[in-house]
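Appendix B. One record, verbatim.
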Amino acid sequence: MNRAAMLQKIKETDIWDFVIIGGGATGLGTALEAVTRGYKTLLLEKYDFAKGTSSRSTKMVHGGVRYLAQGNINLVREALQERGLLRKNAPHLVKNQAFLIPAYRWYEKWFYGIGMKVYDALAGKLGLLPSQIVSRPTALSKLPLLKAQGLNGGVVYYDGQFDDARLAVNLAETIAEQGGTILNYFPVVNLSKNPHQRLNGLLAQDSESGQEYPIKARMIVNATGVFADQVLAMDNPQAPRMLKPSQGIHLVLDKSFLNSDTALMIPRTSDGRVLFVVPWHDKLVVGTTDTPVETADLEPQAHESEIDFILKTAGNYLNRPPQRSDVLSVYVGLRPLVATNTHKTKDISRNHKIITSPSDLITIIGGKWTTFRKMGEDLIDFAERHFKLAPTQSRTQDLLIHGADLVMFTSSELSYYGSDIEEIQALVQQNPAWGNNLHPNLPLNTAQVVWAVREEMAREIEDVLARRTRCLLLDARASLVVASEVAKIMAQELGYDLSWQALQIEKFKDIAQKYILV
């Protein structure tokens, strides 16, 4: 992806079929669906791709065991089907992950075992490995650091695990390869309407140059996730609030707390949710919570009660209870839940919803990463009906995502680059010093930074350390140490001076501090 080339396409295009506002999972899924059906497609992101919730998930591609318990069979079936498709279309990013549900009461392994068989059945032909009820010795062999006292066995089941921000970047690249135009750091300033008060375009601004661009569009999609209400208000200041966001926090620990490739699923916590302890990038992700919030914040903060809850709950199941000092990073994501009358956000469905404003602004809200493709398909189908367009056929069910040349998820720390690994290795061959790690605790070298800038449209330090690589989530303190070196490499690539580096380092420090527990 080349940002200058994308800007040129904006200047040369008179009118777009679809302009999608928002570069998270929903917007990317919608743009991919539109461009592969032959529509002239433009996606605009205010910050960086997956800057918000879409880079801060629990790293699972799943049907949702919790939704099965709530009886939402259709949502679970749809998500499991999408899980299977994504496993096939992005094998470099999605892998099978074994989970153990421990049973400390005699009936639990049978109760959960039956439930997981239903879960398996709903996946149909796109299922992963079958679940199984296991004995106490087998459960402890899977998770040797699980508390053994009172353990009666458990249930092993399989779900998908992925790298969310890397998927977002690869989706952006796939959209570009299919002929779409996609830009980060390009906020929408205003919406424009014809004399009949129907949308006919928008005004957007390049954050880097400050230049404004009037853009004509036949259809405009609001796919901004937890910020959808802000775009609705831009269209109509009196628009009712559609979202009821909740936040979920995740703590990242050293893998030694689990010492296993099998993940732990705690089926019922004190607040009625499930909690996961999942191996990811040679660390552990522990989460998540469900705390209602009044407003959507770009950088949400973990509450002390949430941190204590996760540490206490995980400590109830692990031989070595984690302490605050063990936390390598804490990150927070917001769920774009559709507003309902219920006061408990954990009971709100993750189904997506498509609405239209009197101005013909199409807004999609709700949903989750696993169903991003289906959300895009449903939206374009809806738009074709609403605007009475000739119907087109979806092509995304079998569309390989950029980088998917690898048939299997490999053990290499660069495996999430997929087929791009060879290009990164070629950079190292040309410049051997670029292959040296920038920090002993981080899987990061100079070649990765250069690649992020040249090919993946990274524009700021955070883009590289939080989303093109996952360093900020894996070890926030170590990421602070390498920030100045990353700024220097980026400045050389982008042609920026020392003042830009200084500003970038200060900006990143402000963000990184939010990932560190003190």
